């Protein structure tokens, strides 16, 4: 064999030729070409260091930038989990920003509250509302940057196992430097880098055939933030069909029991204390507050935003035309004008949570049927993207930040073919533009809406 030909080149060639649609970046499920030598090996290339250092420098510069109400939300959760016994976490109403994430995130806040107390005990003072000293700003901003390394580690693993590493490296860099994460996490203030890092680790495990680990990681993710339920149908169909059944459709009882026990174990670890205390109804009432209304304060650019806008147009038409069009009086002054609260239409029939659930499920079922028939990794990744997209378009009380639910998995598909790339560009431009209200700063000041009242927030 010539010296300039790698010894496994024939394997790469055969792998590439056997893929039906010439996939150069996403192999079908199965073991990686080379088994990882160690989970702890320090294997970071110079380019990756440059990306990490440049992005960290930018995020440090954003420390004094706009902080939304979410900043006080997470500071209050530090105080709740540090100052109160676990039995009172989901009952406390000292602040209007009550704890409304699943228990794993509450445990995460409890962990973060320990160094926060030693740094500045005022951070975890439950009655110290709207505390905004430099200590809490620096501490909370730093925790976002550090926990985002979970995302970076997952992207490095994707690059190391790719058939086309240069292309995958570009994709990974575009995700790590995604404007959505910069806006939502490092300006607006949330922990989406950590959460999407767990999601990508789960996808990575599915990519390499470790479907049990993929399911467990996704169960952990659900217990951090329940918005990822939007992606659950794709996981359910994929794992049921490809892991719990043979290709011919026969059940794999051992695999099914292993997966079921692992997922149940994750949920018991999360909700177990609250089950023992009989607090599950209270916890669920915090996690699923359907009274919040159809539209979020900052409207997601989805189907219901168009319907709400159409209702205002029809209202003006009904007032100015001579037609006898029934008008719902509460809807004339309702939050369909764009404020915070429930959405009541003036002309169009009101939309209920069940309506949005049914419509979302109908659109998701199209791709889920295809996934059931062809449960490959690529079909799974496509289903994840489209399930997230359907939920964003038709879900109840969708946040504008939920656009990341389909933009991130779509990023992994972008290099597949030109059609995917074109779709990715259009969705990215529209989705990131929809995040701009989070950083809108008229007159040199930032503004936020709190319960229908416009509030100034200095830089």
Automatic annotation (TrEMBL):
Location within or outside the cell: Endoplasmic reticulum membrane
Main localization of the protein described in the UniProt heading: endoplasmic reticulum
UniProt entry tagged with the keyword Nucleus: no
Lineage top rank: taxon: Eukaryota
Protein's UniProt name: Alpha-1,3-glucosyltransferase
Enzyme Commission number, as recorded: 2.4.1.-
This protein's GO CC annotations: endoplasmic reticulum membrane
Family listed: Belongs to the ALG6/ALG8 glucosyltransferase family.
Organism from which the protein derives: Leucocoprinus leucothites
Keywords: Endoplasmic reticulum, Glycosyltransferase, Membrane, Transferase, Transmembrane, Transmembrane helix
Residue segments, region Disordered: 1-36
Pathway(s) it belongs to: Protein modification; protein glycosylation
Residue stretches of biased makeup (Basic and acidic residues): 7-16
Bilayer topology: Multi-pass membrane protein
GO molecular function (one): dolichyl pyrophosphate Glc1Man9GlcNAc2 alpha-1,3-glucosyltransferase activity
Gene Ontology process terms (BP): protein N-linked glycosylation
């Amino acid at each position: 064999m010539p010296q300039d030909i790698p010894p496994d080149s024939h394997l790469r060639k055969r792998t590439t030729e056997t893929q039906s649609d010439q996939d150069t970046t996403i192999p079908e499920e199965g073991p990686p070409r080379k088994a990882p030598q160690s989970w702890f090996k320090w294997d970071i290339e110079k380019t990756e260091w440059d990306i990490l250092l440049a992005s960290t420098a930018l995020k440090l510069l954003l420390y004094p930038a706009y902080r939304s109400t979410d900043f006080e939300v997470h500071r209050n959760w530090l105080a709740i989990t540090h100052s109160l016994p676990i039995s009172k976490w989901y009952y406390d109403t000292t602040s209007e920003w009550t704890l409304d994430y699943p228990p794993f995130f509450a445990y995460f806040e409890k962990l973060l509250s320990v160094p926060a107390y030693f740094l500045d005990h005022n951070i975890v003072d439950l009655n110290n509302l709207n505390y905004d000293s430099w200590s809490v700003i620096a501490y909370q901003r730093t925790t976002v940057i550090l926990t985002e390394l979970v995302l970076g580690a997952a992207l490095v693993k994707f690059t190391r196992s790719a058939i086309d590493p240069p292309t995958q490296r570009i994709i990974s860099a575009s995700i790590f430097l995604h404007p959505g994460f910069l806006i939502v996490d490092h300006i607006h203030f949330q922990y989406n880098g950590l959460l999407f890092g767990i999601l990508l680790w789960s996808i990575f495990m599915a990519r390499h055939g470790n479907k049990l680990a993929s399911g467990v990681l996704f169960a952990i993710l659900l217990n951090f933030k329940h918005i990822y339920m939007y992606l659950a149908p794709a996981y359910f169909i994929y794992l049921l069909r490809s892991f719990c059944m043979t290709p011919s459709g026969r059940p794999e009882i051992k695999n099914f029991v292993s997966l079921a026990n692992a997922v149940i174990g994750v949920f018991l670890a999360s909700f177990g204390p609250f089950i023992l205390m009989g607090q599950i109804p209270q916890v669920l009432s915090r996690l699923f507050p359907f009274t919040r209304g159809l539209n979020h304060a900052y409207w997601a650019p989805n189907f219901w935003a168009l319907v709400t806008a159409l209702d205002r147009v029809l209202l003006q038409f009904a007032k100015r035309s001579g037609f006898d069009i029934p008008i719902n009086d509460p809807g004339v002054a309702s939050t369909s004008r764009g404020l915070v609260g429930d959405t009541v239409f003036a002309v169009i029939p009101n939309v209920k949570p069940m309506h949005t659930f049914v419509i979302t499920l109908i659109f998701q079922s199209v791709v889920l049927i295809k996934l059931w028939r062809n449960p490959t990794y690529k079909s799974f990744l496509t289903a994840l993207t489209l399930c997230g997209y359907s939920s964003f378009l038709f879900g109840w009380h969708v946040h504008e930040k939920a656009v990341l639910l389909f933009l991130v998995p779509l990023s992994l598909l972008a290099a597949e073919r030109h059609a995917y790339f074109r779709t990715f560009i259009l969705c990215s431009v529209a989705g990131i533009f929809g995040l701009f209200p989070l950083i809108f700063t008229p007159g040199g000041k930032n503004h936020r809406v709190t319960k229908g009242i416009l509030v100034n927030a200095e830089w």
